[in-house]
Amino acid sequence: MQIKQGGIAVGNLNLKKYFLTKNLKKDLPSSIVVFLVALPLCLGIALASGAPLFAGVLTGIIGGIVVGSLSGSQLSVAGPAAGLTVIVLNAITSLGSYETFLLAILLAGIFQVLLGILKAGTIANYFPSAVIEGMLAAIGIILIMKQFPHSVGYDANFEGDERFSQADEHNTFSGIFQALGKINYGAVIIAIVSLLLLIYWPRFKKLAIVPAPLLVVLAGVGLSFLFTGTSLGLQDKQFVHIPIVNSSSEFFALFKSADFGAIGNKQVWITAITIAIVASLETLLSLEAVDKIDPIKRISPTNRELVAQGIGNITSGLLGGLPMTAVIVRSSANVNAGARTKMSAITHGCLLLVALLLIPVLINLIPLSCLAAILLMTGYKLCRISLFKHMWTLGLNQFIPFVVTIVAVVLTDLLIGVGIGMMVGVFYILRTNLRNPYFYQIVKNGDKKVIRIRLAEEVSFLNKAAIQITLTSLPKGADVIIDGSNSRYIDPDVIEIIQNYKHNAYTKGIIVQLHEVKDKYDVPPLKELMYNPN
């Protein structure tokens, strides 16, 4: 389609080509970053799960290509999850064989598809923003603390571990002190050089066409060669160890099939249900978190994500992989690297496949300390000081659940920590709702095609799901007025939904006007409400 001379319309094909080219310039460099982050995590999680190393890489490939293609999320990245390592390790042992465990993964995938069809993903609408923000900050802190030992050459704990109690009989804090006593200065130099490149290289606009993480890897490989034979030399365990495939027959021999003969085993079904529930919760938490840090503020379809994850786990069970989820570490690295669409996740899966088939020897030259530097930067961006200041300005009813979630996640694991944060968050929600009844009203003017949403005097967090569903279902091309003139209190989560909707509505041709909707509302004092006859 061509643009008419003197016209103002842009052809659909030309517009799509423009955005595709523009997005690819962001997505391709981002996919390299995600690939570099995902590779050691896939291997480390497979090792900790008692599964073949190939299974970890295979899961990353399926998560990138299969789930990435089917998912409605533009920035989420799926792969093997650290939160499932204990479940996987125990299941493989109790079920007696890896092939029987693969059947449990396949069944778990079927359960996830059913959950998506039954629209169970809407539960994500009820995660308080303060808890999600706390989870993101906690993951950032965990990345910094867990990657510090790898950055100084102490690799006793597996890559990707997020739990406070480690498999090496240490915890997160004692692991750091243990690392300080076993420093490899060659690894330290590589990590410092890597961090300097990550910080300063992007400032050189003309040179920044080469992604900083790729330069970090090249510098790390070069320095490791330079240190060989000296006191700074790295040990074998301080490098990436991807399985080396020498022929096509050897490659296909790595795949394993599920043992369908164990379909009547009760323990298989219990394991499948456990994996489906835990994987779905982690996926929904990660999806909600990624949408929060998406600079374009898109809203990912949660039910579609459960279906995509289910198909991914079915595929993984059929081919010999591990259970997968949407993973916040990989996803946040994807966002921080500047990705714009799902092409980044899909391409990272393709890169994992290429690395396994064509260049495993080269990949095994990469020091873990330079990859640790990439994760350290990702962690720093997730737990930046400005986030704490922002949460403080929202008031104690937001700041306390935020901090409690951080502490709980750091000292336990992701799901337990978020569960504790949710309980504190719900306490503050109920505390607010005891003082703030809520409703909202929609008035349509059919002649002018204007939709007016008049918010009530008090709008609570419990309105979040209903308001979000209402806004996303509004017709394209409408004018929308959101009127808060009568509102004495609007929950921060609802304000965030309204502002994100206004930010993204132009993509549907919707013009949004906010009338007296403030950025922040103070919770009315209980004393004032007690003496207010209304």
Automatic annotation (TrEMBL):
Its main location: membrane. Pfam families: Sulfate_transp (PF00916). The chain crosses the membrane at residues 28-47, 53-70, 77-95, 101-118, 125-145, 183-201, 208-227, 268-287, 350-379, 399-430. InterPro entries: SLC26A/SulP_dom, SLC26A/SulP_fam. It is found in: Membrane. The keyword Nucleotidyltransferase does not apply. Keywords: Membrane, Transmembrane, Transmembrane helix. Residues 24-401 form the SLC26A/SulP transporter domain. It is a multi-pass membrane protein. This is SulP family inorganic anion transporter. It comes from Mucilaginibacter sabulilitoris.
